[in-house]
Amino acid sequence: MNKFINMTDEELKEAVARQPYEKVTDESIAARIKHVTYFVIPDTTMTVCVIEMVNGFSVRGESACVDPGNFNVQIGREWAYRNAYAKIWPLEGYLLSERRLKESIDSTEQTH
């Protein structure tokens, strides 16, 4: 485990799940993924993952290894996907925040 964190991934997910208010989740992100494409850049160890969201927006993740002898396509895909997926969290958080603001404004306008 990383010396700078105290919770395992599973413990963190469980702690977040117990929070009562609306939030971005793995499930909410997975539901918005339309398609995943992988590319290996020729003559390199770089793998690129492109995650296309249901709204057409794409997020890119990359992975590479230092020694070509360690290159493994499946491992490269896994790291590239994780890299791209991690970039989706703040985007989805922003969208959720915007939606909540709009709902709040709409609600306020309806009561006046």
Shape: flat
> What percentage of amino acids are in beta strands?
15-25%
C-alpha Rg, in Å? 18 Å
The helicity comes to 40-55%
Main CATH class: Alpha Beta
Topology order in helix (H) and strand (E) letters: HHEEEH
Mean pLDDT comes to: 93
Give the CATH architecture. 2-Layer Sandwich
**Strand count:** 3
- Alpha-beta classification: alpha+beta
Low-confidence stretches: none
| CATH-defined fold name | Double Stranded RNA Binding Domain
- Let me know the largest β-sheet: 3 strands, antiparallel
Number of domains: 1
Helix count, per DSSP?
3
Beginning-to-end CA distance, first to last residue: 54 Å
- Within the largest sheet, what's the order of strands? 1-2-3
Describe what you observe in this structure:
The chain is 46% helix and 19% strand. By secondary structure, it is α+β, with helices and mostly antiparallel strands. The protein has a single domain, classed as Double Stranded RNA Binding Domain. It is flat, with a radius of gyration of 18 Å.
